[in-house]
Amino acid sequence: MPRSRQIARPAARSAATASATAGETEVLVTVRDLVRWGASRFGEAGLVFGHGTDNALDEAFHLVLHALHLPADVPAIYLEAHVTPRERAAALKLLRARVTTRKPAAYLLGHIEFCGLDFEVDENVLIPRSPIGELIRRGFAPWLRDEPARVLDLCTGSGCIGIACAATFENAEVDLADLSAKALAVARRNIEKHVLGNRVRAIKSDVFDGLVNEIYDLIVSNPPYVPNAEWKALAAEYRHEPKMALAAGDDGMDIVARILHDAPRHLSNDGWLVCEVGGSVAEFEARWPDLPVTWVEFEQDNGGSDAGVFIISRADLVENVK
């Protein structure tokens, strides 16, 4: 979900920037040539980034390497390798699709890496990019002292957060909950992909409504948190993502309010709630100015302390949310 307010639509530009004469593209003979050409076209078209990459060069690099069936860590010397006409055509097709459709690269490729794991994605789920991935890698330290026995990934989408938790906590049982049947279908494929069917299950649930009597040591959620007016102003790349996973009322806090209210009934006595609100911290604090949440500090590339992820204990929720 977007973590910054700097994602409004850029000025409209002609889709013709994706086209080129045969003569222009025939001079593109190396992998590096294709990456440079793609980045130039992306800049010319005013594309917006934020779904795994934050700039035109990185996005073009990943698309070109995918088209050429090369790994992302390919040695730099191979960037000077010449491509065949068929390979050039495949790379150009993908680069042009990025411009003409404005779909984020992950949707064009059908997968993306999160927390060191590869996940299938399509336009029924958000593209994984949450800073919560860093918390997972840290084992939710220093808050969790023991490995949780049960974890809930609420508003799961692709299942990336819950599946990454299952990979980190090797004995934990993990539930992936979402209202969207199409999102849950993607999550189930990712469960199968990572061979976790014995410990991870996908459950249809409108927030906690489908989780009656379920108790967890850790609830992690990246819910919808974008104010309606802001959603309407999102760049085209973000509007390819499902609206129900983004927009959440006039201030973006409608689903967060339900999570805060009902989470205590689904947390163990020493349980914790981790929740992302991204760029809607001001809206959160306007609704709950005295709620004793801790805003998680992340490494700089994840937004420092401004990433908009909070953690709160069950005890503090019971005491402060009525």
CATH class of the largest domain: Alpha Beta
Uncertain residue ranges: 1-18
Named at the architecture level, the CATH assignment of the largest domain is: 3-Layer(aba) Sandwich
Tell me about the largest β-sheet: 7 strands, mixed
CATH names the topology of the largest domain as Rossmann fold
The strand count comes to 9
Q: What is the tally of helical segments?
A: 13
Mean pLDDT across the residues is 91
Strand order within the widest beta sheet: 5-4-3-6-7-9-8
Distance between the termini: 28 Å
How many domains make up the 3D coordinates?
A: 2
How would you classify the helix and strand content by structural class?
Answer: alpha/beta
Q: State the share of residues found in helices, binned by percent.
A: 25-40%
Name the beta content range. Answer: 5-15%
